[in-house]
């Protein structure tokens, strides 16, 4: 089920201190999850989580995860720069990009990051941009369907990522000829999977493939990168992943294939790490009754795109009304000129009055970070609920000035309260 760990009081206190809408993150909860993951993989002498920056690219969060021993997985030059500014460097950084500008390899190499190549053609690009490192990682795509038991969990054959097995063999031989000595192997075969068998099944594929490639190429297998994809229960009746059981499943596969150990394990979790530890807090501002009953709120899809983009379910509670009967059926909408700008459709909720504070659950990963500026709407602030019980703004809300910063027009629109000086 969704995460109900914070009392309404927390959201109400935050909303008294900061204007809505905002995302609120629970520092203690994020630390707990990082510790639970590290405990689940403590059997592996060389384990490290590289938090997927794209899930929640906010410095205060990255620093918390750094304190918990995590590295970062970056997918662009800007994310590399963000990681750099937060104090990550060297082997604490993984660079997993695809179809990227060539120069991004230069930056990643200058930071000493692990490079995770997405395609065989990237070998020549890396050779020219930063050079081939002693240890290099490659992304595997086994093709076909990805199954856990009989259930199809993903379709790698239709995915744009990774090398085929034959390309891995050829690519690794070429990397060896260019100076590489050790390699890592990475794959991401299924997204948001709460099945405890996901990582163990993926691990078995990667362990086998990595062992065989090491034999075939003469390179040393340095690490397996299980990437992200471990899911969270967005739905009320959904089970959650048991991370201890996941770690145990990976251990069994590891011991069967690497009885002498010696191969490190890395993960790049995003959603599992922070997803349940974030909430979008928004106020009901309008109601409208036509063929349906609508509640308009002051957040919209630019603040949380997943429902509009994927039809994703996010649980909603109304502060102070958690015990009320859910005897009203509403569409909860934002203000965009897009009919899919709905946080909930035909959702049974308690009666909502204008001014009520609504809490949209599980927004701590791929929430704020997928934001955009359609209709000139602006991204919200982010608030940290600190482990001491305080509230700290860790990103301010955008202002019209931010929106105009990339334009060469005079935005001195009195309606926005902007002056010519603002534009300079
Ligand atoms: C290369 C890579 N690693 C890690 C992640 C994080 O995935 P998740 O947040 O589902 O764990 C992603 C997500 O897109 C990814 O592309």
Word description of this protein:
The chain folds into 2 domains: 27-273, Alpha-Beta Barrel (TIM Barrel); 276-397, Lyase, Ornithine Decarboxylase, Chain A, domain 1 (Beta Barrel). The chain contains 12 helices and 19 strands. It has helices at residues 8-17, 27-40, 59-67, 77-85, 103-110, 122-128, 165-177, 198-217, 243-257, 271-274, 306-310, 400-404, and strands spanning 22-26, 47-52, 71-74, 93-96, 114-117, 135-139, 146-148, 151-154, 182-186, 220-225, 264-267, 278-289, 293-297, 316-318, 328-333, 342-349, 357-360, 381-385, 391-395. The strands form 3 sheets. Strands 1, 12, 13, 14, 15, 16, 17, 18 and 19 form a 9-stranded mixed beta sheet that branches. Helix 3 links the parallel strand 2 and strand 3. It binds pyridoxal-5'-phosphate.
- Can you tell me the overall shape? globular
> Ligands bound here?
pyridoxal-5'-phosphate
Largest sheet: 9 strands, mixed
Distance between the termini: 49 Å
C-alpha Rg, in Å?
23 Å
**Would you report the number of β strands?**
19
Helix amount: 25-40%
CATH superfamily of the largest domain: Alanine racemase
CATH arch. level architecture of the largest domain:
Alpha-Beta Barrel
The total of helices stands at 12
Low-confidence runs of at least 5 consecutive residues: none
* CATH fold type of the largest domain: TIM Barrel
Number of domains: 2
CATH class of the largest domain: Alpha Beta
| Class by SSE composition | alpha/beta
Strand content: 15-25%
Overall pLDDT level: 95
């Amino acid at each position: 089920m969704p995460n109900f760990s914070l009392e309404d009081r927390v959201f109400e206190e935050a909303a008294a201190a900061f204007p809505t809408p905002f995302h609120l993150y629970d520092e203690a909860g994020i630390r707990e999850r990082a510790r639970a993951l590290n405990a689940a993989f403590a059997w592996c002498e060389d384990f490290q989580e590289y938090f997927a920056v794209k899930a929640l690219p906010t410095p205060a969060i990255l620093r918390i995860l750094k304190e918990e021993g995590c590295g970062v997985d970056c997918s662009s030059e800007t994310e590399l720069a963000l990681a750099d500014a937060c104090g990550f460097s060297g082997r604490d950084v993984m660079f997993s990009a695809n179809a990227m500008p060539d120069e991004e390899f230069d930056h990643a190499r200058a930071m000493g990051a692990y490079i995770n190549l997405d395609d065989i053609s990237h070998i020549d690009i890396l050779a020219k941009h930063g050079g081939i490192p002693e240890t290099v990682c490659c992304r595997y795509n086994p093709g076909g369907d990805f199954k856990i038991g009989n259930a199809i969990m993903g379709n790698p054959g239709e995915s744009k990522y990774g090398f085929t097995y034959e390309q891995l063999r050829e690519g690794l031989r070429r990397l060896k000829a260019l100076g590489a000595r050790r390699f890592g192997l990475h794959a991401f075969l299924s997204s948001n999977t709460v099945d405890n068998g996901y990582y163990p099944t993926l691990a078995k594929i990667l362990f086998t493939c990595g062992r065989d490639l090491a034999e075939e190429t003469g390179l040393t297998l340095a690490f397996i990168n299980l990437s992200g994809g471990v899911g969270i229960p967005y739905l009320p009746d959904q089970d959650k992943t048991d991370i201890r059981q996941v770690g145990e499943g990976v251990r069994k596969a590891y011991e069967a294939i690497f009885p002498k150990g010696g191969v490190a394990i890395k993960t790049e979790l995003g959603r599992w790490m922070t997803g349940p530890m974030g909430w979008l807090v928004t106020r009901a501002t309008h109601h409208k009754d036509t063929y349906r009953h609508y509640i308009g709120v002051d957040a919209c899809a630019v603040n949380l795109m997943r429902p509009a983009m994927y039809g994703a379910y996010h649980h909603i509670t109304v502060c102070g009304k958690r015990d009320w009967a859910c005897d009203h059926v509403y569409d909860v909408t934002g203000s965009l000129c897009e009919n899919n700008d709905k946080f909930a459709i035909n959702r049974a909720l308690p009666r909502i009055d204008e001014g009520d504070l609504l809490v949209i659950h599980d927004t701590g990963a791929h929430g704020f970070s997928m934001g955009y500026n359609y209709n000139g709407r602006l991204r919200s602030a982010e608030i940290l609920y600190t482990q001491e019980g305080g509230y700290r703004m860790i990103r301010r809300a955008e202002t019209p000035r931010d929106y105009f910063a990339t334009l060469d027009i005079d935005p001195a629109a009195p309606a926005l309260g902007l002056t010519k000086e603002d534009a300079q």
